[in-house]
Automatic annotation (TrEMBL):
One GO biological process term: DNA restriction-modification system
The organism of origin for this protein: Citrobacter cronae
Gene3D superfamilies in the cross-refs: 3.40.1350.10, P-loop containing nucleotide triphosphate hydrolases
Protein's UniProt name: Restriction endonuclease
Every Novel STAND NTPase domain range: 173-330
Pfam family, one: Mrr_cat
InterPro entries: nSTAND3, P-loop_NTPase, Restrct_endonuc_IV_Mrr, tRNA_endonuc-like_dom_sf
Highest rank taxon of the organism: Bacteria
Amino acid sequence: MTNYDFRALNNEEFERLATDLLSKRENLLIERFKSGKDGGIDGRFYHSGEVIIQVKHYVKTGYSGLLSKLKSEEVAKVKNLKPNRYIFITSVGLSPANKKEIFDLFNPYILSNNDIIGPEHLNDLLALYPEIERNHYKLWLSSTNFLMSLLNNAAIQNSNFLIEDARKESYKFIETKQLQKALEILDENKVVIITGLPGVGKTTLAKQVMLMHCNRDYEIYHIEGSISEIESIYLKERKQFFYFDDFLGATLLEIFTRNSDSKIVQFIKKIITDKNKKMILTSRTNILNRAKNLSEIFNIEKIEKKEIEINVSDLTDIEKADILYNHVWHSSLPQEYIDTFYDNRNYWKIIHHPNFNPRLISFITDSDRISGIDSSNFWSYIENSLDNPEMIWSHCFNNQTREEVIDLVCLVVFNANNMEERECKNALKRVFNIKYKNNFHSKVNKIDEYIKESIKSTLNRSLTQLNKNVMIRLTPFNPSVSDYIINRYATDETSLALYFSALKTNQSINTLFSLHSNRKINADVFISVLESVLNAVDLKCLNDYSIHLLHSIIHSNLISTNKNRMVYPSLFLNIEEEYLTYDYEVGECVLWAVKNAPSLFSDQFISDFINYAMRSSWRYTLNHDDYLPLAHLINLRPAIKGEEVTHELMEHIKEYWHENYDEHLSGTGKIQSLDYDERSKADDIAYDMLHDLINEYDLPFEDNEIEYMYSKVDASTHLYDSYDYDEDERDHFHSHRDEKEHSESYINDLFQKH
């Protein structure tokens, strides 16, 4: 049974819900009015005379505030109008005594208690007319039943922070035509990419679309890590919804390393051909355009068909007004601050400001961010924030944030905007050891205090559970925090060197290279910081982190002089199996070293190295990328091509493809795009693809060996499986936003209701 308190709705939304329900109850079309028209009537219909409706959403003031308003204003209006019947609707809980008091006030116009409708009656009507509940989606998103269904769904426990965050944001979300467009693209393509400039509401829109699918039995998966993460959680028979915010973002360099761009596109193809899957991604427009320029595959696969770009310029004045009004309504600003938006019709100045965007509106209506700003200066603060958007975080970090908390935020931002809390604490200790050497212990003892201070002001803290392991992660409060920090420190070599040297994570290395490739820091700063990071690493005993650092340098676009100054081939003579597990980065580093200093590396070294690599497969499965550098090493030394080590490597490769080629096919696009009746063509294509992969090794595989590798494959199982879309689901997500004409009068009326 429904039991809403209706706090999720602002008064405009509550009035619409109330008149929709009353229309159903009375089986009549109700004419709605805006505030200020016909003496404050909210609705009217004719049935044996004129019937007028008054709707009061007084959840913030309660019954005493409601009663005062009725006595001082509404009773006189009703007596002046002299309707045949008066229906009063409110979100304030009413006792029998309260109803009698209201009945007596409006006697003889209220004909019965049935025409005094409180939240209990509204909930009864919602139970009778569930289609109205579905149409007012902000209502059911706030319901206890919806929350309990989420908490009981074990499959979404790793996304519970995302879902709860989206539920809180849904209160301030306004349905625009962009929501409907995103849903239409998702319905048609199973995948939608939301793009736009910073602050336009990409993430907010994506979260609301995701949240809508929670109520359709989809398991929600929040992708936060590497590209390979999305492959490991794909379950073919389950209804899954994948959410990938800023999917290019700060890790653009990683995206275009090891064919990761191809992996994303292949995964998108897999989603498109699976009736049980949907996926939403976000990206800043300039980053996605750069991806298209850097990677041909993003253009070949016509990604733009799955894009929706959000532009603030596309928002109508009414949509901007609704966004502003909804944020003010749901804010906890004191009344004297709220009045600032209404005084002199200041709301028009905000709506028409060229820098209007939802993120700025969120900031100027956030009571936590105006501490120290007197109400008499609040309008000046709003104007300055709109004229200089960067001022918001400047005020926060310069006047409201301790230096130690800024250190913490910098570490999270420079770690690709996502860091496990335990790792962050260790990195912060390394920063404190250098920055506050004489006060180190007292600072370390306050680390938990600094983290607590940062939460919900500059950082978010989330708990994710994978199997039985609980991980606590820190992320920026929103993307503008990251933008501010990067711009603030872009030329500060000393601070950048301190933070990146302290981090010691692969993600931080990716971020450093990405900042350079995206021209956020110039070449001189990049080289200086990179050298500091190198100097802070013990290269005598290579580990996963130092290998990733060296590999990133080797495969960067740095000029050879810089590479050779930073990386010596002799470094890779020191690989110790105890500290370093083989993968493609280790292999490619050694391959580079052998090519650049062949005399340093004997044939025996290469044989031993390949044997060490194959022993790693006892602990985890090596893949195609891991085997390639080993094969290329053999091709550099013809003397070992006929030795046992070559035969053993070929056996490893043969068994790998025998066991994994069928799974590999599931991520390719050529097979999925064929029709089922093209079965023989699918087999030919799949076999040729395998042949091309084996040719990359340049090792003497026989045809019968390739046939063995292919023997477990049934290409027909990867063909396109057509499906019929659930029309009920499409209808469920249809936008019921009213067409609003005469925007100036609508907006002025809207802001009279405070």
